[in-house]
């Protein structure tokens, strides 16, 4: 079943602009993760934020988590053409399994 | 360092034919292993996961089965493929201790005609 739901489904921006993607979920979680997928390739883990964390940074990535609203956002600052990809949030409940959303397709135009 | 391999990269099979996709992990021991399917333009659906040799959990009823004959080998199989089995199949592993990120293989693109 799909738990994470990303918004928007697709996003097109100019190089240098910031890109914000949102994710909502329904149940209690242990952590929330963001992954990136280039077309036709496997997924690459970007960042993990635990349920007791509110914000996390990694390079040009900033992730926030609001457990009261059951939502998360991924911000990519100063986007580059190479950031063009699909981005997925995935929630981990208290177990070994990740539940993925349908993803946001990001296109960065140069 | 750890690596994960999947093969074949692409596969075209007729309806009713058998299937065997293989996934192997190097550089780690006792990993959790996962098989996902991704339909075009969609998210990932967990099909099977395994916490050890011979231990398989199925997430959705389907035409597929999985086996783990060795610690770092995970196989996805079908006796008779259906058109609806077409998709992008991804294998992933994670450290046995829970709540860690998963590491994905390059995937197999399966087309059933």
Please identify the top-level CATH class of chain B: Mainly Beta
Which protein chains make the most extensive interface, counting residues with beta carbons within 8 Å of the other chain's beta carbons? A-B, 28 and 26 residues
Q: Give the tally of structural domains of chain A.
A: 1
Secondary structure: helix percent of chain A: under 10%
CATH architecture classification name of chain B:
Sandwich
Helix and strand composition category of chain A? mainly beta
Brief summary of the model shown:
Helices cover 0% and strands 56% of the residues of chain A.
Describe this structure in words.
- The complex is a heterodimer of chains A (110) and B (113).
- Chain A contains no helices and eleven strands.
- Chain A has 110 residues and is an all-beta fold.
- Chain A has a single domain, classed as Immunoglobulin-like, CATH 2.60.40.10.
- In chain A, strands 2, 4, 5, 9, 10 and 11 form a six-stranded mixed sheet that branches. A five-stranded antiparallel sheet of chain A has the order 1-3-8-7-6, with no helix packed on it.
- Chain A is globular and about 40 Å long.
- Chain A starts with a strand and ends with a strand.
- Chain B has 113 residues and is an all-beta fold.
- Chain B has one domain: Immunoglobulins (Immunoglobulin-like).
- Chain B has strands spanning 3-7, 10-13, 19-26, 32-38, 44-52, 55-58, 65-70, 73-78, 87-94, 103-104, 108-112.
- In chain B, strands 2, 4, 5, 6, 9, 10 and 11 form a seven-stranded mixed sheet that branches. A four-stranded antiparallel sheet of chain B has the order 1-3-8-7, with no helix packed on it.
- In chain B, a hairpin with a 2-residue loop joins strand 7 (65-70) and strand 8.
- Chain B starts with a strand and ends with a strand.
- Chains A and B meet through strand 4, strand 5, strand 9 and strand 10 of A and strand 5, strand 9 and strand 10 of B.
